[in-house]
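May I ask for a single protein's sequence together with how it folds?
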Amino acid sequence: ATLTIMDAKTTKKGIPIEEFLSMNLKGKVIVSVNIPFPQPNQQLNTFKVAIRHENSHAIINAGFNVVIDKSAVVQQKPTLIFGGLAERNCSMPKTENFLIGKSLHDRETLQQALGVLQNEASSIINKNPGKIEYRLNLVNNYFYKAILASLPRDSVSPALQSAVEPFVRGISSGIQSFTAKSDKPVHNPVPKMNSRLQTSGGVKYTGDQVSASALWGSFVTSTIASGEIEKVDPSRALLCDGVVAFVCEKDIAGKNVVFDELEIFATKDIHYYGQAIGLVVADTKNHAEEAAKLVQVTYKNVKKPILTIKEAIEANSFLHPDLPTHKYNDVEEGFRNSDKVFEAEVGSDTQIHFHLEQRVCIA
């Protein structure tokens, strides 16, 4: 496939996918995508795994394009594209070159290809989203599914065919069983009074009631987890269209503190990623958000962030170290008198609250 891309001055046609993947698209518009007709024995398969089946960004998505002959021998360089693995969509040139002329029926060849692919993916994976081992496993799983999907169906054993059959999710349904009793409404299923309005879009939340003349604010937040602010420069943001002001701790009349200890805007010390440093005020939401990105914050004495409970214990970093501890009976004696003692660690990942209302307030 090739693309036609336009910016304010020029129009470029026939840009190959490989060039597009590394192109900076700021200020550019994709005008068209030219997808050629498929060749005989050309197989195209795409995959996606996300937190939810619909309306959710993919953890890893992938596309595989391969041309094979009747013996399942790869006739030309295939295309393997992954999204969510690195910072940009990326191809796997080493794996692609390895597969040229190879038979997809050869189990040893596939094992070697998986090794090449795993090494290639491990060298470019972006570690920031986490779940590194899981995402690398998805890469291998996608590749395996793509190989099976590219082979003639009658050449794949029945035990393996389920790996390539599309997953079709039926319409969700639910049943609530209850026993009616006379002492209403206790023990009876009573719907939440405003649930129908909330789920149908009939409720007007705070963000739906902003007047046309209102100004919008967008926070400037820290991009480090621990360190100190050296300088805040809002000059570029103040030159943007619609921007009215930049507000920071110097503009707070009175104490720059809430709940006796939390700063409204950071004065010097940064205690967590995303801590509020200032606020850009503009005539529209988009103007405020875009201008907030242009506020330049310089940091010093940046420290390595503490990301897990284990790291916090090792660093003796506690939010309230002076809180009293509560101890009941003699735990050590209980262990000594136990027939068997098992040791293990249990943890849980973070969970984002799936709220209906936007995070907004009107002042």
User: Anything to note?
Assistant: The CA atoms of residues 309 and 346 lie 11 Å apart. The chain is about 25% helix and 20% strand.
